[in-house]
Design a protein that fits this description.
The complex is a heterodimer of chains A (about 375) and B (about 400). Chain A contains twelve helices and 13 strands. With about 375 residues, chain A is an alpha/beta fold. The longest helix of chain A has 16 residues. Chain B is of the alpha/beta class and about 400 residues long. In chain B, about 30% of the residues lie in helices and about 20% in strands. Chain B is built from 13 helices and 14 strands. In chain B, a hairpin with a 3-residue loop joins strand 13 and strand 14. In chain B, helix 6 crosses helix 12 and helix 9 packs across helix 10. The longest helix of chain B is centred in the N-terminal third of the chain and has 17 residues. Chain B is globular. Chain B starts with 6 loop residues before the first strand and ends with a helix. In chain B, about 70% of the residues are buried. The chains are: A alpha/beta (about 375), B alpha/beta (about 400).
């Protein structure tokens, strides 16, 4: 018989981004609208001159990764381990680590581009010097699954472990995958994470294909993790609950992946599907988390979504990327910000339900509904 | 009483070094063909290992890809060809494609594009790369190209758990079906052979300079391959409702992580055994019900030893009787495509009542286990397991059943 996707709760948020390290720094920056985007001087490999971007500062990897181990890890992996530890500590979980492995804890991670720095370093050596001079340590650390593997090793996660590489939907689909692992019964708790780090060479080169940041939309970087649990399990251990995730909706794609849809139809359909599954009316959506970060195509679609669905009431809006820069796999960071914001007063007391929206080129849209617990 | 939510296979498609379709794959395996030869697709100068199992050139995707010349779109082309065969064999009406989900497992898609981008920079300096080829770099681009080529309009997902990607993609598709998110999903894996992966595995000393010999006592490593495999998956109720031919049932899956080492498996095989055990529990079967194990069987000393340990742990005394085989001895390790291709072989084994032998075994590592060597064997039983293990200690197992079993559940 069909397996019901029961609501789950978020009990921990770990975030590392241009707004700081940790969920409290994230929420404070959003509350004060402090931007983490600054002018950066790029190296000679970039086609563009100095440009604005959001870079992570002040992250002490040694505080999270054991001595010596971080040297071999791609930067994305070091950030993933740090964000995962922050989420676990925020959730108040004990007995977590490489010496206390748990086969009932799962992991799902999403990144649009993965371990770019290590991948680029390996490929450049291969192309410049030939096969004999490649570094055997770089190869396994360049694969997309490396961040999840390192998180699993550092935190003793022996349940299902998955990595999604779905462009701007990577984080969202990782969260969905973790939720499915809970629903199917493969795990009792899942750490869902996502993020990307900025590599000027590749981001600039990918810009013509709609994957990199537009010149008017500065790039950013960041990694976040959430702890997802069943509500009963969280209640049993008296965990603080940020939000209840109640439904998901997906629609599209509606056009070729190298362009944006002409209309917000897939976004409207994804929202409608989520609301229908949660048995909620659109008038109950108190806030909407949007992508918009200066990207004209995305802003057109999101404005169209709001016009189509919320003509009678205006939900509060949360947009993280104007403060951090656009992070391709930043969905989990955005969702974490919304969940923490519900708990820490970013929204009015009347707002009980937030809709998280993402759309990627090609038109595949994703909506997640989060409720105040 | 049949559980209408059971996931079944109604279409299969594959392209491997044995040939451009599923029948070529099966006939080649049954004949014990080995397809390893000097790599032709790119320059292997300086590579420690120069042999692999290359697939025949797939049909180009037309203007959607960069073309065959720089190989940057090859993974998408391999995937689209296998996926098309799967869709044709499912006999689903074309109108169903508009809502069909797509889940692709891939490990190295994009590596060829990155190399092609960097090559001109040797001569032109920084910023001189050919940006055009990078359209194939993001792994999601491969998924989208396949979806667009086949007119699939449902949700898409791209999974990279390295060498277990294909099976994890199938597991994710099963979740989408069992929670009602989709009614039909095309799931599978695809990967092309690249200098990046060939040199990468060689740098880890994981490759045999000669054709691999999985489970042989004197094995020295893997041999790489390339290809794609796709399955059309539906809930039983949907398949029965349209009088589809059910090829097999996928009754359960297990997915675990060793969490021990980035590249080496747990030598005791505990995580892999748990994946097999969970798959059997979810399928409602006991070890003695398992008719065969389609092993991950790469041919590396550590992987095969760990998998043997896992099989013993999971199957207990039945391990001594249960046929175990590896198709990598014929088509090499197809990385993200491996698990999907091997699941297709398991479907065929159940359908045809036979398990191919593992080419290259002269002296089996564990003489007491029932490795299939020399010639194919007939299956006793109606269930089979397919194992797929990846970097990071990622372990994934599927439990499959002959369609006749579904009438009794």
């Amino acid at each position: 018989m069909p397996v019901k996707l029961e609501p789950v709760v978020v009990t921990g948020v770990g975030a590392i981004c241009p707004l700081g390290v940790g969920v409290d720094a994230l929420v404070r920056a959003i509350a004060s609208q402090r931007s983490g985007v600054d002018v950066l001087e790029l190296d000679a490999t970039s086609r563009l001159g100095p440009r604005r971007a959001g870079r992570i500062r002040g992250y002490d990897v040694d505080a999270f990764v054991g001595p010596g181990r971080s040297r071999r890890m791609d930067r994305l992996s070091t950030l993933a381990v740090g964000a995962a530890w922050l989420a676990v500590r925020d959730a108040g979980l004990q007995n977590v680590g490489r010496h206390t492995p748990n086969p009932r804890v799962g992991l799902a991670f999403g990144s649009a581009y993965g371990c770019q720095s290590t991948e680029l370093r390996y490929a450049e050596k291969l192309v410049e010097h030939g096969a004999y001079f490649t570094n055997p340590i770089d190869f396994p650390d360049s694969i997309d699954g490396a961040p999840a593997a390192h998180v699993a090793m550092e935190l003793g996660i022996q349940g299902p472990s998955t990595t999604h590489a779905d462009a701007g939907l990577s984080g969202e689909l990782a969260l969905y995958h973790g939720w499915l692992d809970l629903a199917i019964g493969r795990a009792d708790r899942v750490l869902v994470g996502g993020g990307d780090v900025w590599n000027p060479l590749l981001y600039d080169a990918l810009e013509p294909f709609g994957h990199g940041p537009r010149p008017e939309a500065p790039p950013g970087e960041g990694v976040a993790f959430l702890v997802l649990e069943r509500a009963d399990d969280a209640a049993q251990r008296a965990a603080r609950t940020y939000a209840r995730i109640t439904a998901v909706g997906q629609a599209g794609p509606t056009c070729g992946h190298d362009r944006w849809p002409d209309d917000p139809g897939s976004s409207v359909a994804a929202l409608a599907q989520a609301l229908d599954r949660a048995q909620i009316r659109h008038s109950e959506v108190g806030a909407i988390s949007l992508l918009g970060a200066g990207d004209a195509e995305v802003e057109r679609l999101e404005a169209g979504l709001i016009d189509a669905v919320f003509s009678e009431h205006a939900p509060e809006r949360l947009a993280l990327y104007p403060l951090t820069g656009q992070i391709a796999g930043g969905g989990v960071l955005r969702i974490g910000a919304a969940c923490a914001g519900l708990h820490q007063g970013l929204f009015t007391a009347e707002t009980r339900l937030i809709a998280h929206h993402t759309v990627i080129s090609g038109g595949q849209s994703f909506v997640l509904l989060m409720e105040r617990p | 009483m049949v559980d209408p939510g059971v996931v079944v296979v109604t279409g299969i498609g594959a392209i491997t070094a044995l040939g451009p379709d599923v029948e070529a794959l099966w006939q080649g395996l049954m004949a014990g063909r080995r397809t390893f030869a000097e790599v032709r697709g790119f320059d292997v100068t300086g590579c420690r290992v120069t042999i692999a199992a290359e697939a025949p050139d797939p049909r180009p995707l037309g203007s959607a890809g960069a073309g065959a010349a720089d190989r940057s779109a090859r993974t998408a082309e391999l995937a689209a060809q296998a996926a098309e065969e799967a869709l044709r064999s499912s006999k689903l009406p074309d109108v169903e494609r508009a809502r069909m989900g797509l889940v692709l497992g891939t490990a190295g898609s994009g590596d060829a594009a990155l190399e092609a981008y960097l090559q001109p920079m040797q001569h032109r300096g920084p910023g001189g790369g050919e940006r055009r080829v990078l359209s194939s770099y993001p792994k999601r681009a491969t998924t989208d190209r396949v979806g667009e080529a086949l007119g699939l309009g449902g949700p898409r997902a791209t999974i990279n758990t390295a060498c277990s990607s294909g099976v994890v993609a199938i597991l994710h598709a099963m979740d989408l079906l069992q929670t009602g998110a989709c009614d039909v999903v095309l799931a599978g894996g695809a990967d092309q052979l690249t200098r990046y992966t060939l040199t990468g595995f060689a740098s880890l000393r994981a490759l045999d300079p000669d054709p691999c010999r999985p489970f042989d006592r004197n094995r020295r490593g893997m041999s790489l391959g390339e290809g794609a495999g796709f399955l059309v998956l539906e809930r039983l109720e949907t398949a029965v409702g349209r009088n589809a031919r059910v090829r097999a049932g996928i009754l359960g899956g297990g997915h675990t992580c060793d969490a021990g080492h980035l590249t080496a498996p747990d030598p005791a095989g505990r995580g892999a055994a748990r994946a097999m055990q969970v798959a059997m529990v979810r399928a409602g079967i006991a070890p003695q019900d398992v008719g065969f194990v389609n092993a991950h069987g790469t041919g590396t000393p550590h992987n095969d030893a760990a998998e043997i340990a896992a099989i013993r742990l999971a199957l207990g005394s039945h391990a001594l009787r249960c046929p175990v085989h590896s198709v990598k001895a014929s088509i090499g390790h197809c990385m993200g495509a491996a698990g999907a291709i091997e699941t297709i072989v398991s479907v065929l084994s159940l359908e045809r009542g036979q398990v191919p032998h593992t080419a290259g075994i002269d002296e089996p590592e564990a003489a007491d286990l029932a490795f299939v060597q020399g010639e194919p064997v007939s299956i006793r039983g109606t269930y089979g397991l397919t194992n797929s293990f990846g970097f990071g200690g990622n372990n994934a197992t599927l439990a499959l059943a002959h369609p006749s079993v579904l009438e009794c559940r």
